[in-house]
Amino acid sequence: MARLYEYQSKKILKEEGIPVPQGDVASSPKEAGKIAQEIGRPVVLKVQLWVTGRADLGGILFAETSKEAEKKAQDLLGKKIKNYVVEKLIVEEKLDIQSEMFAGLTIDDTSKAPCLIFSSVGGTGIEEISQKYPQKIVRSPVDVLKGFKDYEARDMVRKVGISGKTMLFLSDVLVKLFALACKYDARSVEINPLVLTTDNSVYAADCHLTIDDYAVFRHPELGIEVAREFDRPPTLLEKIAYQVEKKDHRGTFYFFQMVDDVSPEGKYIGFNGAGGGGSMMSMDAVMNKGFKLANYCDTSGNPAASKVYRAAKIILSQPHIKGYFASGSGVASQEQFHSARGLVKAFWEDNLNVPAVIRLGGNYEEKAVEILHSYLKNVPARVEGYGRDDSSEFCAQRLENLVQENNFHSHMVPPWQEPGHDFLSSYSFETVTGKIFIHHQKCLNCQTKGCIEACRAQILELENGKPFLNISQEEAQKGKCTECLACELYCKFHEQDALFIHLPIPGLKEYRDRIGKED
Q1: Looking at the structure, do residues 110 and 209 belong to the same domain, yes or no?
Q2: What is the C-alpha to C-alpha distance for residues 200 and 452, in angstroms, rounded to an integer?
Q3: What is the CATH number of the domain that holds 497?
Q4: Do the bridges between strand 113-119 and strand 97-108 make them parallel or antiparallel, or are there none, so unpaired?
Q5: Cα(257)–Cα(259) distance, integer angstroms
Q6: Which label site among 89, 303, 406, 490 has the fewest CB atoms less than 10 Å from its CB?
Q7: Tens-digit pLDDT profile for residues 8-51
Q8: How far is CA 342 from the centre of its chain?
């Protein structure tokens, strides 16, 4: 799920007719003072971070005047709270609160429907409220085909003992809450507290929305950079990784950095899992050996070799890792030689100098292990491949041994390499996410023409001893070329190194250039 900040959520609430306190978001002390001056009353300043208990952490301050608001904003902006730097804060009117309530929507797994929740007690988490005041909470699953009606909202509010005009105000909020959740494909909405002021007005004093990952593309107006539920802003490398997943739906690629900067002294590794349960067991195995994870990555669901290649290149863009560990489910249904080829291309291009242990249990695992051992025996570091009969614990032990043998050498991130000039002037055609270059002059010395047989999709044919595309450019670009990488690896390791598949990763060249300068 993709989370929105409080200021983003409140903007949506206001647009949909749910009252919010007067105020705005500020990124500088001067902006904060200006907003407070426009309000002309005492204000509250709240840091915009995805953390709970902001008041206890010193992230909520009050100010009586605009000058005081500017001073308080100076204290908050740039402050570190739970290792997160405050970059924005809300400045809004201080409400004279009579009572606090809770209103929210979540997807209920039991009823398999959206469920509205209302409580006449608010201010703390709904779990805590349900334990302390179960009689104060009412839940109502909603039939998405019928929608949520005014009378249903009134019934919910009445059940917790609220009547009169306040009941009408609150029921109106619930109806609009459901409507905006539908409009924005929200997986959850939480207004906590929903407050009643001393003049009997209702306001959403705090609000948070999460948007369904798969619906983010429908809402460019929300400015969501990464459709993931982070507890912090995404890192630059996470943004780069997400662009791969966003534009390529062949299997899963999920990347999350566990630390911002990998310490050269730390025992950190790059981690590449495949599937939730198997990945968890594999993480436990390496962590039991004293390793720390620089990242979590998942490449599952039968991803293309090109996608695994990009995942590996992104993982290897983290300096100072001591090794690379890939292990997921022991019986994955995906064809493991695709993952093996993607890893070979990435490791070979980066001249891998830290050990890697790759556990590829599942379909064609023997062929996958053979590919790893055959094609990576000449990279500087050891790479070992294993299958389903080799446990995560065994593979983690092998990684520990190899890292020790490598004297805990740290990975140095190499510059990104573009195709050479000899390839740029060669015959080429585009694929789904990349471009294939074939150096026909080199092909004349080829004895086997093995790239034709290696291409299982049979998109290549020979003309005068040279491989050409035997389908239209449009067909290749739409997916007839599956980017299995088999033709490139065959040509590179068995013949003339005359074929190169360029798989760009927007932003990674600049990222690696910056890393190189910092190191």
Answers
A1: yes
A2: 77
A3: 3.30.70.20
A4: antiparallel
A5: 6
A6: 406
A7: 999 999 999 999 999 999 999 999 999 999 999 999 999 999 88
A8: 21
